[in-house]
Amino acid sequence: MGQELSIWHLVSQASLFVQLIMLILLLASVVSWYQIAQRVMYFNQAQTEIARFESRFWSGTDLNTLYTEGGDKRVVMGMESVFRAGFKEFTRLAKKKLDSDAMMEACQRSMRVALSREEEAMEHGLPFLATVGSTSPYVGLLGTVWGIMGSFHGLGQVQQATLATVAPGISEALVATAMGLIAAIPAVVSYNRFSAKVDSFAGKYDTFSEEFSSILHRQIHSRD
């Protein structure tokens, strides 16, 4: 009885096509968990960087000093990336005699590009999780249907059809559906959670961009 109910036994007894389906689902699940772990670390780091940079930025530190300090870091992300993009453009154009509105537009454009890059970085891996979450149940169901078809085909070749004859094949096929759900559920839950984080962080970055634009606007017009 223990062997009959063993998952490994059911997998080994399944047809080659069903085993291939199970392997695909297993690989999808492994990659999903890798992406999940990576996203968790990324968003934890992003949250830490937001708190650190906001504290430093709003403490009254000179912007030139803050910009110079950021240049020593190998990885710049989040608000600091938006800040550096805007301030770099500001310092570059400040040396030229340009119209104030043109300078402001250039700084805002640079920050929008940086913001777009940050959003792309946050969304990395999410399309894969969405794909796994939406397709895995159907892939598993395909393996189950194929396995059940094989079981009934074999059933038609025996003289006496009993439940004991077809049950093992159906049990093996149903493992594919179970694996599809096991792969899909964490992917769907994680995708929804990370999507909410992307919206939240993007909103914070966008708000900071507008606030920093106001600061640059005052500095640009103070030169006139």
From TrEMBL:
GO terms for cellular component: plasma membrane. GO terms for biological process: bacteriocin transport; cell division; protein import. The keyword Transferase does not apply. It comes from the Bacteria. The chain crosses the membrane at residues 16-34, 126-149, 169-191. Residues 80-205 form the MotA/TolQ/ExbB proton channel domain. Its main location: membrane. Keywords: Cell cycle, Cell division, Cell inner membrane, Cell membrane, Membrane, Transmembrane, Transmembrane helix. It is a multi-pass membrane protein. It is found in: Cell inner membrane; Cell membrane. InterPro entries: ExbB/TolQ_transport, MotA_ExbB_proton_chnl, Tol-Pal_TolQ. The Tol-Pal system is composed of five core proteins: the inner membrane proteins TolA, TolQ and TolR, the periplasmic protein TolB and the outer membrane protein Pal. They form a network linking the inner and outer membranes and the peptidoglycan layer. HAMAP family: TolQ. PANTHER family: PROTEIN TOLQ, TOL-PAL SYSTEM PROTEIN TOLQ. Part of the Tol-Pal system, which plays a role in outer membrane invagination during cell division and is important for maintaining outer membrane integrity. Belongs to the ExbB/TolQ family. This is Tol-Pal system protein TolQ. It comes from Zhongshania marina. The lineage of its organism: Bacteria, Pseudomonadati, Pseudomonadota, Gammaproteobacteria, Cellvibrionales.
